[in-house]
Amino acid sequence: MLSRHQFDIEIGERLKTVRERARLLQPEFAERLGVSPRAYSNYERGERTISAEAIKALYEMFSVDPVWLLSGPGNDPRSIKTPTKPELLAEIIIKVEQHLARSRLKLPLEKKARLIVLLNQYVQLKGKLDDDHVEHVLSISAL
């Protein structure tokens, strides 16, 4: 399992790939994502965990697949066949956070991200977000 810092470094490398493909400097890219240049620089270096809002902006502005951003593999930010809808990704993240809060559980960022990826893949296959499945996956992951 990757450490949180290593996980953030890998996300930072993928962010840099997207920014370079867009042919933008860090300050310009940060502005488009709605974050400060310093925050973005920290994301890219892996010194700060990327926010959900920035992930959503990457999807909306640059068609970056959130699953690819969080877990890779490869260098293609549009690697998923069916793109994730930003509203659906937000709903998944909210459900994960709500379950964890209700259960008074804390998960490492990497594990939480993997759960979001898993739930997103499930939704891609089933076409909808099933609350019972979300609860089941989260209850198993917290063991």
Describe this structure in words.
There is one protein chain. This protein is 69% helix and 0% strand. The two termini are 16 Å apart. With 143 residues, the protein is mainly alpha-helical. It has helices at residues 4-21, 26-33, 37-45, 52-62, 66-71, 86-103, 109-126, 131-141.
Summary tags:
mainly alpha; 434 Repressor (Amino-terminal Domain); 2 domains
Ordered list of secondary-structure elements with their pairings:
Layout: H1 4-21, H2 26-33, H3 37-45, H4 52-62, H5 66-71, H6 86-103, H7 109-126, H8 131-141
Helix pairs in contact: 1-3, 2-3, 4-6, 6-7, 6-8
User: What is the fourth-level CATH superfamily of the largest domain?
Assistant: lambda repressor-like DNA-binding domains
Main pleated-sheet profile: none
Approximate shape: globular
Q: What's the tally of helices? A: 8
Summarize the structure.
With 143 residues, this protein is mostly helical. The chain contains eight helices and no strands.
